[in-house]
Amino acid sequence: MNSRERVKATVECTGPDVLPYLPVVDVRRFVNDRPEDVPRVLEIIRSARTDIVITENNAPPGSEPTSSYRAMAEDGVDQWGTYWRSAYASTHPLADNGFDLDAYEFPDPRADGIFRIADEMIEANPDKYILAQVWWTLFERMHLLRGFENALIDYLQYPEKFKRLQKMVFDYAAALLDHWLDSEVDGIYFSDDWGDNKGLLISPEVWRETWKPLYRELFGRAREAGKHVWLHSCGNVTEIVPDLIEVGLNVLNPVQPKAMNVEQLAKDFGGNLCFYGGVDCQHTLPHGTPEEVRNEVKYYIDTFGRFDGGYVGGVSHTVISDVPMANIEALYDAFEEYS
Predict the structure, then answer these.
(1) How many helices (H) and strands (E) does the chain have?
(2) Could you read off the pLDDT of 115-134 as tens digits, one per residue?
């Protein structure tokens, strides 16, 4: 199997030759905190088997508009007017201007150059599985614009403005999606964090009434075009996993063992949903031994990967600079060995 065939078989649970894996490493944290280890970290990443290539609407450096990713990495203002500092949004344009939607200029989802890097990556990787991002898709974009607390209560406090902004954000995401659906990508990667360590950020009833129809439309478009649907959603989102499957989800990330019941996820959804992530970034990676890391990798492969696929190897969020080098090496070595 080539990489594209392997990942498709994994997602669809039709029997890959080996499982793909893609741990996310925040290299910037190492640059800032452990610069002496950066060459080894990059060596590990570059030498790993790469089945999945992730791309997004990101104009080349030095050109406009500036994507949220680039602004986040470089400390700057993105095309939405959000200022990023140390990887966090420190301004919220529609909170700072008093929620004046008429005075706010939405970015252009079809601006010149924003797909140039992606097009080059797609062309350069004909045998890879290409995963295109529609990142900070709906709720996350709204709280980046409005601030987190405002975004949680706007539907009650300012229902008309909330609906108008929600529609504007949806239309932007849909325009990006339409571009990807006309390209040679294999999957669409959406993101909206809906949980914390205990459960959903809002009631499942409100989520189903207010947000589920929008995901149904976005996910449905992707599935109709023959693309897989991936979703990054942190926290314990177990209550809405059946809803997400119903509206077309194929792959759920990141699987956080400190928030979710891993065994229950496998029992209830294994074979009907592919899981991506799992290895614990909160305890095992920063504080465990290399052997504990290896054992955890094997556990996730055995737990989720036994459904003729159904598991993309990864971590419960991001490998940052609190993880010892020996554990990073053990993580990659174990994924390669056990997959």
Answers:
(1) 16, 9
(2) 999 999 999 999 999 999 99
d(CA 221, CA 216): 8
What pLDDT score was predicted for residue 73?
83
- Tell which residue, 74, 69, 191, 41, has the closest CA to residue 131: 191
Strand order in the sheet with 187-191: 52-55, 129-134, 187-191, 228-232, 251-253, 274-279, 311-315
CATH number at residue 218: 3.20.20.210
Residues 41 and 166: their CA atoms lie apart, in Å, by: 40
Structure tokens at 7: 């990942």
Q: Whole-angstrom Cα distance, residue 246 to residue 259?
A: 22
Q: Which residues contact 216 (CB under 8 A, 6 or more apart)?
A: 247, 248
Look at the chain and report how many structural domains it folds into. 1
Cα dihedral 25→29→31→35 (10° resolution):
-90
Cα–Cα dist 137/233, whole Å: 11
Domain of 172, in residue numbers: 3-338
pTM (whole model) above 0.90:
yes
Q: Is pLDDT above 90 for 45? A: yes
